Amino acid sequence: MFIDLVNQWLLLGALIALVGLVLGALSSRRGVPFLLVFLVVGMLAGEDGPGGIEFDDHRLSFLIGNLALAVILLDGGLRTSVASFRVAFRPALALATVGVALTAALLALAARWLLGLDWMTALLLGAVVASTDAAAVFALLKASGARLNERVANTLEVESGVNDPMAVFMTITLIGLAAGTLEPTAFGLARMFVLQIGLGLALGAVLGWLLAQLTERLHLNDGLTALLVCAGGVAIFAATNALGGSGFLAVYLAGVIVGNRAQRLSAAVLQSMDGLAWLAQAGMFLLLGLLVTPRDLLAVLAPAVAIAMLLMLVARPLACALCLAPFRFAPRETVFIGWVGLRGAVPIVLAIFPLLAHLPQAQLIFNVAFVVVLASLLLQGMTIAPAARRLGVVLPPRLEPALRAPFDAAGAQELTQFVLPSEHPWLGASAAQLELPEGTRLLAVARGGRVLEQASAGALQADDALWFVSAPTAVERLTDRFSAGQAPAGASAPLRFVLDGDVPLAEVMALYGLGSGAPPPPLTLAQALCEHNARPVEGDSVQLQGFRLTVVEMDGERIAKVAFTVG
Hints:
The chain is an alpha+beta fold.
């Protein structure tokens, strides 16, 4: 009987997951967030849906939610380059601290007015829903094919990794104050904050370095390397929490260190980690959907939707405008970052804290947080990619490698394959003429079933498969270089040309007969861009006399390549 019961539960769980995956794949083509589908499938499988499963185990939900968040933050850290912090650390830190606190305060005002809550409970509700879930944002952008410019992408990326500790600290503090277990002194609160953040930074850095060393020294295959990194990240998360630090901050920082130091972290390892992160997100959203009782949401639906609208249209945009003002973001970038305040699993997991503490209004906080997440996923999640294009914060689409794999056992070099499409600017050029990033070489050209060496390949042709060998850190630059100058689909002639940043502006304008008769300023293309962007990043652009200049490739702080677009 017990074996039969186990098999029935395994079958039921697998069927729920399969339904979620199939519906998610179908709905994502129409812009519906994948994670929203899993949340709805969980609700339908629950006690108010056709599934009829009764589930109210908050402790299990809290355990699985924290495990999933640790894996998701670790995966995000692995994909965050150190260079991202050069561009985004200060604005992201402002959003993750002052921005989260300001958002929580504004939402507390709304909750007190709309729900008649006392100040402590209203502040707790604001803290629970104050942090964003940028992991879901990038999953949606990746599915849509839209690429954000470097300044916006890095700011959202770093913010997503460092804003959770602030929300967790505020939530735990307010619960302690409401339950009477925490003394409300300024010194005590400041000490707790410094301890959490300090331990999170220290343990994340030290243990992350040790995990990077372990990853380098143990010669495991890609699948086992991914499991090693995942287990190490979860251990860092749990150990930091047990010592009173911020496990969220520690695991993200550890991911950043491992991702930037471990040479054995190949594309296959990252793909395996991506699968683990998606498994964590899908399982967490299914479980959280099971946890909620839809009929209980009806009593708070109207005020909860009003709070969600205030969050999306007032609180988050206002907090972003104030926090980003000192950093000279373009208005369209600030508007987009304000709109991409997507709420996901973090608010729901934080809403379990009051339930575990048995606070009087805990169920109300949970229900409101759940409605806010639903509204955010539905409204913001379905409009992120169109909003990015509308506000002009997307980069031109890239031609991604057809294949990417380790080239040597140590993982010091990677093999990438690109296929030349028609109307590509490299067509007709010889292999020796290609301008490749430093540390990259063309290994071979595959044409018509034959493999040709560089010397014998001759002029490159459409549908040639080019095999490159480069350091893992150079693959992104190679991809940008390969994509630069690609003509728009259906265009009869290229409208966009990629030039060196040190080319004189006057020569380019004279070549294409542009300008109003007055001599152009004696600037290079890079200098013309720097006139309008003090700290340029990839994707920055400026419209001049009948043409547009766009940063295509940065070499450190220098503009290496500029796209010149006529019209």
